[in-house]
Amino acid sequence: MENLSLMLAPLLSSKLMIVLIFGTLFGLILGVLPGLGPTTGGALILPFTMTLDPLSAIVLLTAIYCAGTYGGAITAVLINTPGTPAAAATCLDGYPLAQKGEAGRALGMATVSSTIGGIFSVVVLVFFAPLLAQLAYEFGQPEYFALAIFGLTMLASIGEGSPIKNLIAGAFGILISTIGKDFMTSIDRFTFGINELSEGIGFIPVVVGLFAISEMLTQSTLLDQIFNRVALKAVKLPSISDYKKTWITILRSSGIGSFIGVLPAEGGTVASLIGYSEAKRWSKNPEEFGKGSVEGIAGAEAANNAATGGAMVPTLALGIPGSATTAVILTGLIIHGVRPGPDLFREQPDFLYGIFGAMLIANVLFFIFGFFGAKIFARITLVPNKLLWPMIFAVSVCGTYSLSQSILDVWIMLFFGVIGFFMRRYGFSVVPVIIGLILGELVEGTLRQSLVIFEGDWLRFLTRPIAVTFFILSLIALIFPLLRKKKSNE
Amino acid sequence: MSDVQKSKGADKKSLPLFFNISFKVIFIIVFTSSVLLYFTFTFEEVPPILNRGIQPATFPKALLILIISLSLIVYYLSIKVPWNIEKKLPNSFYITLASFIIFSVLSVTLDFFLGISVLSVLVSFFWGERRIFYLFLVAIIFPIIVFIFFETILGLRFPGGIITNLYYN
């Protein structure tokens, strides 16, 4: 009961409600614009959150996360282009249904299933995050090291793209985290005599570079892209027969999305694809999939929004991001001096339940805005890239500069923008770099502290059952995609 | 969003080994990692009593060796299933990249906001915008709005320059 009142606290704070409404609207706009999305948008807004208190900042980021994930469905249905990667599966049935003149019905189904999926996942978050945090009390340095390794290998397992390339990208991210003074001995590493590098490379220039600037370069190669827009009169609530047809699918996909979200990887995208394929597998009318099936829309949308709450579970309970956007949220937590983990649950329950409540309210808000304002949001896609991206560049540059008022940060941002572009071009996902960068200090710190505890004897890792379990899971996570690939080749 | 697709025999016929795209990519990764690995040998060492388990250079060394090893595996796999680049990069990409360089030079030599304005007008123009009002919007009006926002609301002081100094003075 006490926790419930903490969860509803944002409703009673006018400041938090303003932040929530702004975050939801901003998230919807970001979700609607192909190439932006909640990850890039969250990265762009990170510097501005420094003017807010920690709770407002994280509430803003989570509202952007929830609404942005849903917003991708609007463009998926109307122009057959997913606003976010997580909405890719929504195109498969959303656009064909819109072409049949039922764009309102398609968006109505997407809105309802997204909201149910999102709320379901917040319930999962409220119950499971404290349990996981409780479990984390048993963790010492060796267990945290093994957990961080597990988080990184999971990227290889179910992340987008080649598993080995994802591992290379993750190792690259960890390598970036070693730049600067060694935090244990104060020895300079990779500073090349540049004093400003002694403090290390900040998260924000790397995040903004890898997401926003690399996307700008990607957009520069897509200037001849033409969108075929479907007209939208109004969003319609699904009919009773639609609900009868889809309620099991929505519940199943909500469960799948929440589970996939909890795993440390690219939650929403993987969740929506699995949610969609499971909806097709269990459907009485699988032949309708790809031709405008409401079950297909419900399966994909419930799953990708359910992944939002799921991905927040390891982020808050263990400090291991569950998705690309939660990596940005984790960055937000760190720069605001909040260290996720079991202590956060014990010492700052009002902060945590404020976030849970904000996510719940954000799901209701995007339902309202989506239902009544989808037509307006759809018009945002009319803003041409030739005007939009120079503006995003100006905001990126100023935002990055604002953090430590250093022009070097701006150059680092541009450098990582170019690196990110080429990484994506040659099939290396940029998400593992961010996750590696965030986890780098944890990986190295816990490894070195473990070795101090073990007096340099590496084999003593094997005397810790939880650590051994995570190492075995890591091995499975590494071997599984290779076996799957071999099987598919055969 | 990758242009790379793996298809059997995609670039086997036309490209000799050294022009093969996977070779170029892996060569750059391995070469850069090797140079960085060399630098790790120049890191200072601490006495055993202070080294907290391992020397400061050990962890980056292990990471770089891991990156090199995994890259070689990726290259080996690319011999079996070659990468196929579908599209050449268009001129608009190189112009955008050149705009970044122009911005970087202008922002430190003349003015930070002049750099943003020049980049905005270049990108917008070469991406196809020809209407004077919209070019004016992205090159002048929007950077002014951004400047006022950061200057007044966030209290940020931008680096001095020929235009910014007019405001600060």
Protein described:
The complex is a heterodimer of chains A (490) and B (169). Chain A contains 19 helices and two strands. Chain A is an all-alpha fold. The longest helix of chain A has 49 residues. By secondary structure, chain B is mainly alpha-helical. Chain B folds into two domains: 82 residues; 78 residues. Chain B is 62% helix and 4% strand. Chain B has a two-stranded antiparallel ribbon with strand order 1-2. Chain B starts with a strand and ends with a helix. The N terminus of chain B is likely disordered. At the A-B interface, helix 8, strand 2, helix 9, helix 16 and helix 17 of A face helix 1, helix 2, helix 3, helix 4 and helix 5 of B.
Q: What are the SSEs and their pairings?
A:
The complex is a heterodimer of chains A (490) and B (169).
Chain A: H1 2-7, H2 9-12, H3 14-32, H4 37-49, H5 54-79, H6 88-136, H7 141-158, H8 163-177, E1 180-181, E2 188-189, H9 203-220, H10 240-262, H11 267-282, H12 294-318, H13 324-335, H14 342-347, H15 349-379, H16 385-404, H17 407-425, H18 431-453, H19 465-489
Antiparallel strand pairs in A: 1-2
Chain B: E1 4-6, H1 21-40, H2 58-80, E2 83-85, H3 91-109, H4 112-126, H5 132-153, H6 164-168
Antiparallel strand pairs in B: 1-2
Helix pairs in contact in B: 1-2, 3-4, 4-5
